[in-house]
Structure formats: structure tokens, C-alpha cells
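Lecture notes, part 5. Sequence design as translation. It can be helpful to think of inverse folding as translation between two languages: the language of shapes and the language of residues. The source text, in C-alpha cells, appears below.
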């Protein structure tokens, strides 16, 4: 016969096991290592941001979704979400490119694309922790681990050389 104290102890032990299983994977880290204009027309510009993702774990980490926002001179000009389409190799570093398409009309001074602009890119990467229990919790929607990133810098929106 099960007593209330035994039921509580069993639930507590199960919760601790699940928590330890989900926490066994250390979070990866991401940093922006490059920002460059890759396309420019009279209507818009595309900036590619290269992120370096570092995985400190002995297991690969499949990345699921990247959500990010770009600000130029303090104004939000792009918000995006995309499938990460990558897996961080174990104890390694991998680069991922995320694009930001900006309409020239959305800029505060659309006629001046040659001046230096301050940018801020921020976002989060959702990943799947290694192990059966973390995968089950992810599939159930109970645990969706993610890690943030942010970078500031300067960029000009002029056409690339040779264009």
C-alpha cells in the first residue's frame, strides 16, 4: 500500500532525476564574429552576420531555431526567425550565418548609405540537449533550452566593392 509520504518521495526523486538529466548538458555560447553587406539594390540591403557557436560538451548539440533582431542607430530595422540547420560538433566551434534584409525606405536617412551606422544584433539560439530525457522533455515542450547572444559594432550600407 502506498502512503502519501512515499508518493511525495517518489515524485520528488523523479523530479530530481529529470532535473539532473536536463542539466547535464552545458549551454553552448555564441558570438558575432563578422558583419558584412552581401547585397545592395536601390530598394534594400542584406547584411550577413556570422556567429561562432562553441560547444563545450562531449556530445553534439543539434540547433533548432535562431531568433534575432537588428537595430541600426537605435531603431529596429529587422526581426527574424529561422531554422538553425546546424549541429554543433562535440567540443568544437562552428560558424552559422544569419541574414538581415533591410528596406532602404525604413532607414532614418535613406539617401545616405555611405555613413557609418551603429548596429546592435541580439537574439537567442534554441538547441536540443543531449540524452534521452532532455530529448523527451523537448518533444513534450516541457524544456526548450536556449542561449542568448548580442553584439554591437559599426557598419556602412554602401555597395560592396566591385558592384
Amino acid at each position: 500500500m502506498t502512503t502519501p509520504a512515499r508518493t511525495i518521495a517518489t515524485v520528488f526523486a523523479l523530479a530530481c532525476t529529470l532535473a539532473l538529466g536536463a542539466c547535464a548538458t552545458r549551454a553552448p555560447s555564441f558570438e558575432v564574429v563578422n558583419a558584412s553587406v552581401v547585397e545592395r539594390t536601390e530598394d534594400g540591403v542584406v547584411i550577413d552576420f556570422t556567429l561562432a557557436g562553441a560547444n563545450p560538451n562531449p556530445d553534439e548539440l543539434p540547433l533548432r531555431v535562431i531568433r534575432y533582431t537588428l537595430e541600426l542607430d537605435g531603431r529596429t530595422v529587422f526581426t527574424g526567425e529561422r531554422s538553425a540547420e546546424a549541429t554543433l560538433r562535440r567540443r568544437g566551434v562552428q560558424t552559422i550565418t544569419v541574414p538581415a534584409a533591410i528596406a532602404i525606405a525604413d532607414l532614418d536617412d535613406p539617401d545616405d548609405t555611405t555613413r557609418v551606422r551603429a548596429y546592435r544584433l541580439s537574439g537567442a539560439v534554441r538547441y536540443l540537449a543531449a540524452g534521452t530525457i532532455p530529448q523527451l522533455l523537448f518533444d513534450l515542450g516541457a524544456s526548450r533550452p536556449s542561449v542568448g547572444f548580442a553584439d554591437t559594432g559599426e557598419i556602412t550600407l554602401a555597395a560592396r566593392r566591385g558592384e
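The translated text above is only one of many valid answers, since several sequences can fold into similar shapes. The two ends are 80 Å apart (CA to CA).
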